[in-house]
Amino acid sequence: MMNLMDKTQERMPNVPLLVNVIARRVRQMNSGQRPMVKPDNQFTSNFELALREVAEGKLAAETAVAPTQQPSAAESLLAL
Asked: What global pTM score does this model have?
């Protein structure tokens, strides 16, 4: 049986991205936003709720690749 962390990493295998998403979501919940999943009990931490949100597919992240810059005409001439 898969534990919560395994399910979370299966949904978001990029660990640095996962850490940033979870940290941001915990800060949001600490500042008053409601969780997107129902807590198991009154002592469920915001960290666990954020993990469950990712594991259940309710929280995801998109990454954007910055477009590569084309060298200007002057830079192209300098390269010759």
From this structure: 0.75
